[in-house]
Write a structure and sequence with these properties.
The structure is a homotetramer of 352-residue chains. By secondary structure, chain A is α/β, with parallel strands linked by helices. Chain A folds into 2 domains: 158 residues, Rossmann fold; 178 residues, Dihydrodipicolinate Reductase, domain 2, CATH 3.30.360. Helices cover 31% and strands 23% of the residues of chain A. In chain A, the strands form 3 sheets. Chain A has a 6-stranded parallel sheet, sandwiched between helices. The first copy, chain A, has a 6-stranded mixed sheet with strand order 10-7-11-14-13-12, with helices on one face. A two-stranded antiparallel sheet of chain A has the order 8-9. In chain A, strand 1, helix 1 and strand 2 form a beta-alpha-beta unit. In chain A, helix 6 packs parallel to helix 8. Chain A is globular. Chains in contact: A-B, A-C, A-D, B-C, B-D, C-D.
């Protein structure tokens, strides 16, 4: 097998849980190789295993237990690709600096998601939004750019809506989520709050879904993204589940297709990452379930390394026309895996 | 304190979990006293403690551990009031016989819920549906009657919709439920199916909610109940919660009231059971929560002995106008407690 | 009913979860009335409802939502009785000051538990250890004293061992615990650590059980407490349970009594709090279960307001002679309720 | 890669959960190939997917969805190797018939476990017990034989005790288990019994552990197995965990070795399946954890396909000398995986 030179990458915020997910997914990645693990000043200079309490399954530290952490600034942590697992505050400050100096910054933070010139990228859904990078070059004079992946709940939702929008046109969406505790990071949700309970509130979550969806399905114009004319109502809940968001979805589609037509549109969808065979792209972006009680989060969410989404129970909705159950992996497809797939798309498009 | 003579009652299906809930709530009831505990042939003649594996908290057997079980037929188990905890099959056969011979049968089964002449009774919501009893007398020549309480999910929902229907008029309803395992009785849901999981399917549950709601909010006419013109879409899920159904609700109300007006309509509601001071009626039928993350099922559902419902997070819905979180006790308000409250209403109205 | 003047008390650390439990149990207490709610400097001057996120069931703030918090020092928070819900650090500093100035300090902290002159008090077990107060008067020149309640796991265990020690003499003890998450306070155990999991480690817990037990069952001598000659091995685990510690216990008793004799010794035990009828004492200190699969924590632990312990499955142990299942409430009997019962004992003994 | 002819095998009780585990593990097995899937009369003649509700993760039906089920008798289901997932009743009747006609029957049932001439086989522990097959030939005149794998809890325990018995000699054992719900099969444990609960009773489980251990560690003599002189006390509990039994173990070892010596004995153990490289043997039979809070069932149990066991927290025990935490997979190592490893051992030893 021919070996190519891999592209060096940085992980900002490498000691947190999202950072760990980046490290785990980047170990043995065919295109990328970790050059810098960056963390806060307090941790820099330490070995990864000393500064980081590893929380994931599988080989601890992704084989980098002896890697020495560096400061998360452009002097110490520059790479052509920067994966950012930073919180909003540090992300606001640091990500633009890396972009200015030429890095493509693939960010999990919400800091710049709604900025007009920043792509809210899901490779299966809106690969053409990559063109917004040029806006950033022009507008800010940056050599690099910031590319965000959306909120995890919105990511899962848009994966099912995109083929329906292409096939029929989505007009209205109801989405009630039952979300895993991992979405709140570690230590995150206290066991006293969630054991045997449902919490009907996740701060800012409903707002994020309602505003990010129209941007993702929007059209790139010379002035930036024009939002799609879709009205969404999101109702978000935390449930005692470890990984994976279940979403109960109803949609009003143009032309009122039947459940069978909807099933076929989802099944037939073969977007660009699957056509290009990107390394992290699942073979089928949507797994359709015909059993009457599937998908089920605990049984289905780890399929395809958490990169596909699951649809089942496609049936008529008395109000909007079609309803179905949707399931996706919040910390893989909805976080680290999503960012890495974004970088793979940028690479395939020759942007590196 | 003056003591009145209590009305003797029968519990059909006394050994099951719903039967046990009847027994627990009827121990020390101010109006009713258990005369007969009826069970299948296999158990009749045995003492209650011998035939029944008690599954509830509190004093086992409601003080009736030595009570001898009888056959569930009209020869052995007749009383003026019969509470039926039977499954659909036996209910279809036995309930009409008791009604024919003069009993008021308060049933938890779904067998006759949608029959035109049978009231689907929630005392706070449609006390006037009691008039349907006369239809049964005329139509079947019965001396008694069958009165059903609705499906547990529908009961909780109608408690919040009734005051809104009275104040504004309900036009459309979205309801996504996250339901407790106790709704499936014992042994019911296998732990292998629900630990750390969400099951997006409960057989017939969505259909029941969608058809029972319009009947409960309908109008009694000389031809029976005229369904209310409300369109409902129900999406039902099982979650790892012991008791209590959480419902994410969106409603389209006539005249588009504000969240504040909706809150006030719910708060001000004082229906007949509260006016009459029925023994099992909670002081306020709806508890309104102003904390941003309440109601929560584990923390709130046992309030008022499970007889009130809880509403919180009343907020604008981009699609239907108003959305809120709703919570109620599926096995108290939604089963045994609801039936007993029905009997109390019938008693207060002089129907006994 | 005659009304007596109640004794004013202080709660130190009133805003934490243990503090809240004190407040909830002291609302409507027949002997004590809350005079001061003390908290850290940051909170003092605020109303209780402003400074405290109430985490418990039942009426929030125990009716004291408008009570103004004071600093936790002897100038602002002095009372004849002080209940301390402080962490070890502040407890080490503040509790002696209150004791010096004359308060009886009933502490939940571990700071002084093993001090020779401090009683590790469980009223049913070692009421005579109250005599250690005089040591404190003499030794430190204090007008008041510090009285500790033991670690929650040790408290539950000693409740079952005390009657066996009195009846037979305890020689060796094996104790494997399965402990509730509430023992780690709020937010305490992350849901990511405990959902569907067993964690075989609770810091210092095994050591505390192994050293506190012999002190509690020890004898007061002129030199302080002489430890009982009992060897204990504790193996502690966290399980996904909300309230209540389950303990699997094996004991070697002098004279090798039969399970029947052990059951009788536990049943017949009627220690001082029950003889005196202390307000928080449960009618029977030990509830014995004869069902083959009880006690069960979720079903039994709230019995008697969590103040009794439960024993079941008393059977022969091939190694030590007797084994049984033990259950008790870690945050009621093992924390706030235990401290208040201690104060009630001190009151009944005329120490106030 | 050279392809060898695979040995045809039968799965008795193929539609149950244990049967499904056999099917899943035997799909793509390098030595064995499924010839017959046998089930009760009611299912025979149906396709596997029609007769069986698949409950496991991964590809449903192990690729055999169209396989036609046969009756579980020797006329229809004979193979050189028979894996039995039958319940005790049918196992008692059918397994001897297959053994008589020449099959090696690898059984999960408890029916013949304690029979003197039947090996209770764990390949790492007592491969020499295979010699008991000759007893069966002589004693019963069978051409084949029955070989049992032990109770799941006992299997996990013996994996840790065997190297200690070899290195030092085991004298006494305390074992408190916290067992997964999957041990009770499907539907098994009701969610109403285990959510947020600990059940301190599993029928016959303690007895099985206490009697099977000495047999497994016993010596084969001309009269059958001579039990090892080890006294065991088992205390068994069900906890809300899906897969994997956690065991808190204390042992008295000959010569009182230190924790370090114990750790080294466990680490150095390289028994026969690892020496032979049997296909289902994990690379290391025991994984030793040095983190203070590991092993944890949810995080560690799926390691090595569930075929290794985990030991951590090796520390001094005040009573018996050494205590540690032990963890193993009850339905892989403790059921289907264990039986298949037994068959691989028999094959390697030339018994087929």
């Amino acid at each position: 097998m021919t070996q190519y030179i891999k592209i060096p990458v940085t992980v900002l915020g490498a000691t947190g849980v999202v950072g760990q997910r980046f490290v785990r997914r980047l170990a043995n990645h065919p295109l990328f190789i970790i050059q810098h693990l960056a963390a806060s000043e307090r941790s820099s200079g330490k070995r990864y295993r000393e500064a980081c309490a590893w929380r994931l399954d599988g080989e601890p530290y992704g084989g980098l237990s002896e890697h020495v952490l560096v400061d998360g600034d452009t002097d110490h942590a520059m790479s052509p690709i920067v994966f950012s697992a930073l919180d909003t505050g540090p992300a606001s400050e640091l990500e633009p600096k890396f972009a200015e100096k030429g890095a493509l910054v693939f960010s999990n933070a919400s800091a710049f998601r709604m900025a007009k010139e920043v792509p809210l990228l899901v490779p299966e859904v809106n690969p053409d939004h990559l063109r917004l990078i040029e806006f950033q070059h022009r507008h800010h004079g940056w050599k690099g750019a910031i590319l965000c992946n959306p909120n995890c709940t919105a990511t899962v939702l848009v994966m099912a809506l995109a083929p329906l929008h292409q096939a029929f046109g989505v007009e209205q969406v109801f989405m009630t989520s039952m979300q895993a505790v991992s979405g709140a990071n570690y230590p995150g949700v206290s066991s006293l709050d969630i054991l045997g309970n449902v919490v009907p509130f996740i701060r800012n979550e409903e707002e994020k879904v309602e505003e990010e969806l129209p941007k993702m399905l929007g059209r790139v114009t010379p002035e930036g993204v024009e939002m799609a004319a879709i009205t969404i109502s999101a109702l978000c809940h935390r449930v005692p589940v470890l990984e994976g968001h279940t979403e109960a979805v109803s949609v009003k589609l143009h032309g009122n297709p039947t459940p069978k037509q909807v099933r076929e549109a989802l099944r037939a969808w073969k977007p660009e990452p699957q056509q290009l065979g990107l390394p992290s792209a699942p073979p089928m972006p949507i797994r359709i379930h015909d059993a009457e009680d599937r998908p089920q989060v605990r049984r289905d969410v780890e399929c395809d390394g958490g990169m596909s989404v699951h649809v089942g129970r496609i049936r008529p909705c008395p109000l909007l026309g079609i309803k179905f159950t949707l399931l996706g992996h919040n910390t893989e497809r909805g976080a680290a895996g999503g960012s890495i797939l974004n970088a793979e798309l940028a690479h395939a498009k020759g942007l590196l």
